[in-house]
Amino acid sequence: MTRVWALLHRDLRLAVREGGAIGTALGFFLVVVSLMPLGLGPDLNLLARIAAGILWIALLLAALLSLNRIFEADYEDGTLDVLATGPLPLELVSAIKALAHWITTGIPLAILAPVLGILLNLDLNAYPVLVGTTLVGTPAVSFLGAVGAALTMKTRRGGLLLALIVLPLYVPTLIFGISAVSASAGPSGAGSSFLILAAVSLVTMVLGPVAAAAALRIQIQ
Amino acid sequence: MQLIAEDLVIDRGSRRVIEGLSFAVRQGEALVLTGANGIGKTTLLRTLAGFIRPFRGSVRLDGGDPELSVGEQAHAIGHTNAVKTSLTVLENASFWNAYLGPDAPSRARVDAALRHFGLEELGEFPAAYLSAGQKRRLGLSRLLVAGRPLWLLDEPTASLDAASSERLVAAVDAHTATGGIAVIATHLPLGLERAQTLDLAAQRIAA
Amino acid sequence: MQTLTQRLANPTRFMELSARLLPWFVAASAILLVYGLYLSFFDSPPDYQQGETVRIMYIHVPCAWLSMMIYGLIALSSFGLLVFRHPLADVSAKAAAPLGAAFTFLALVTGSLWGKPMWGTYWVWDARLTSVLLLFFLYLGLIALRSALEDEGAAAKLTALLALVGVTLLPIIKFSVNWWNTLHQPSTDFGATVDPSMRLPLLVMALAFTLMFFAMHLKAMRNEILRRRAKALRTQVIMGRDRLAAQGAAE
Questions:
Q1: Quick check: B14 and C235 CB within 8 A?
Q2: Chain-chain contact of A176 with C179 (C-beta, under 8 angstroms)
Q3: How far apart are CA A102 and CA B60, in angstroms?
Q4: Scanning A113, A142, C20, C137, which has the fewest C-beta atoms within 10 Å of its C-beta?
Q5: B186 and B193 Cβ atoms separated by less than 8 Å
Q6: Domain containing A87: what range?
Q7: Could you give the ipTM of this predicted complex?
Q8: CB-CB: which of B49, B74, B86 is closest to A14?
Q9: Exposed / middle / buried, residue C238 (Cβ in 10 Å: 0-12, 13-18, 19+)
Q10: How many domains does the structure of chain B reveal?
Q11: Domain residues for B178?
Q12: What CATH number should be reported for the domain holding residue B199?
């Protein structure tokens, strides 16, 4: 447990020290959301209707920005070699690193989402659901993203390739995240979408680290 | 304890690098690997560490912990230092102590390791400002905080000055004196006690 | 005593066997294709609703079928590579990916052409078309990942891993797309029933396309094996030259 905490603590500390990542993701989120009304026109009714979709897509893209560094930095400076022969299995190492990514990008983005909802005239009642779905849905982004990051660790221009690989896999998260927010206004409520979203996150939290560790093992040679 | 490699055949890419190599390193001994560039020193060390699966043959640590693989009982230092430049020297060493250390994290152990490699004055210094040699020493100090019985060192003296090389030699000697094993690839004569030399070109051990 | 798979695993055996099989596959698929095309263009009735455009279906449905079958084949080959280290598994997966992408693309194009007279537009976000589009992206991901990695051995295993991740998530993706579709528009389930007079041409075309794919796949696998042999020979030549140069320097 000391070791788990030590690794998590180190990754969080690195994310804060190298601060750029969190700030850039938040700034990107803000800019993309602000560009939408400029492209679609300032019709508040239209914006309110598609606000959930815009917020979720912008959030996905923002989280994607910092994903490729999850393993790449550790691979480049040799840390990954040491971690691979360390006392924790690589599956756990991958899970901890994905968790650190979620804490440093998923949570800040989820907190910023309702603020940006104001810009898009999002229904006030939808705010709790929006925060809930982004908090519950973003682990899938980090844990599935970790698989993509591990697969593209050694490639040049890994970021673009990573996006191409993982974005199709994010479709379920996107669909259930948005439908939970939209449905919360309707008569049936957000219930079922929200539960499926949570299930998707849980599945990726289990399978993601296994696949990521397998990808790392193939490449540490 | 004894490190035994039997009939190792190792391929890299589509090339056979090592063909039928066998050797044994007894407890309390160091093995120095020599040979020209590209002869397979790094490949052999990475195989011992478990990163590369040999095409044939086996590596085992007799008398080691049967629950752990050879790689898990070894600490390998390659060409990279695994130093995070945005952390301080002390934070780097403390992390590896907490993560790799055999027992509870110990500040005394970290301090001793830094002192051995002459970094005790630089504890609060961000690692980004270290020179290449100082970064190397910080990387090597991991050997002392990790406390593994088998050390695998690949060109450990790269970018070290004469005094720092002596500190490394002293660390290896102390390690073997307390029953550890070390395998070291190097081009320079290190003047280790209790060391054999394995010339990979001849694939023969000389005392 | 070797098992059948072990004997087939030997690339030399595979080259012999595939050389003998390939003409049969080509001939069978050509004959079936001609027969199928005749059936679908001349010997089947126009649809009472869609008229002559229904004939696009005879190309579209086999392509759509192949798009899924080939992904399944890639996933199976990937499993064979990662679990059994079957030497031909990666050759099979690598050869199948561009073919799969091509058939998926054809399914999208024919689907949109078929949709034009029905929907009045080339593209609607129908659940099935959207699923096929996402499948196309998965193929692109596989091809892009493989081409981005230099070490061919690692590329093979990593691509196989991605294919397995994709096939695991595919049912969830499909489910989510259906969910999304019913959420935004009532399901327009066209062509749910196929008239018996259309069933025969459809079946023949599906079989012809499947055989055609296997012929192309065999050929592509043979090409890949030959490319690997050529590459191995080239490295041997280069290494031999190096050794000679080293000897020359020593003398």
A1: yes
A2: yes
A3: 40
A4: C20
A5: no
A6: 2-219
A7: 0.89
A8: B86
A9: exposed
A10: 1
A11: 2-206
A12: 3.40.50.300
